[in-house]
Amino acid sequence: MFALALKACAMAILALIPAAVHAQDIDLHVVTRSFYQANIPQRLGIIFRPKVLFEVSFPELFVEPGLLPLTLTAGIRLPRNATMDAPMFRIIGDNGEGPFIILMVDVDAPIHPTPATGEFRHFLGANFFLNDVMDPFLLSNSTPALSEYQEPHPILSEPHRYAFLIFSQPDNFNDSVGGSPFYTTTSYFNLTDFILQTGLDQPCGGTYMIL
Question: Is 132 within 8 Å of 138 (Cβ atoms)?
């Protein structure tokens, strides 16, 4: 009960001070429209109907001093040096306390506009929970990442789309992923196969950036 009250209080404070966050998505309809206009669900073979706002924030090391971490808005264009360090993740919305799975893929690997049959996986982590008393929206994982964050290095071509997706984690996920090629192979990752083989539902949130 205390955690729910704290979360409601934090949401009310955020609503009063929207300028306190350096860029962020605030409307699920806008995020959904941006994803489909960028042809990301079609390319990945997913149905994108987000239930939560998924915030991805990079450290302020490569943005103006004094600003809060750089939080993505769907479709934001970033310089490569802004994404060198692993991001933090937050969700706003009612989709439970976790666990969640978070995935980052290069939609256009290896070369845009002629990508391969699969994506390049830049991050895959499981067992993310909302359990930070000081920040009730912050996600933290209780186990090592299945694929540690790899910063984007797009081959010189047209800009690449990098999608961040969050999924509700099924009970048997940790057993189903162990020993599979999804655990070790980052190139030619196939999201639709991954969803089928691990029993995931469609993503409950997402955002993306362009480099």
Answer: yes
Least confident of 22-31, 104-113, 174-183: 174-183
Q: Do residues 162 and 211 lie in contact, with contact meaning Cβ atoms separated by under 8 Å?
A: yes
- Please give the mean pLDDT across all residues of the chain: 81
Supply 149's token pair: 């964050």
So what's the pLDDT on residue 133? 75
The torsion region of residue 51 among left (phi > 0), alpha (psi -120 to 50) and beta comes to alpha
Domains of the chain: 2-210 (3.90.280.10)
Please, is 154 exposed, middle or buried when counting C-beta atoms within 10 Å of its C-beta (0-12, 13-18, 19+)? buried
Q: Write the pLDDT tens digit of every residue in 184-204.
A: 677 778 899 889 888 999 999
C-alpha span between 42 and 115 (Å, rounded):
13
Burial class (CB in 10 A: 0-12, 13-18, 19+), 146: buried
Question: Is 25 a residue whose pLDDT tops 70?
Answer: yes
> Which residues neighbour 29 within 8 Å (Cβ) at sequence distance 6 or greater?
none
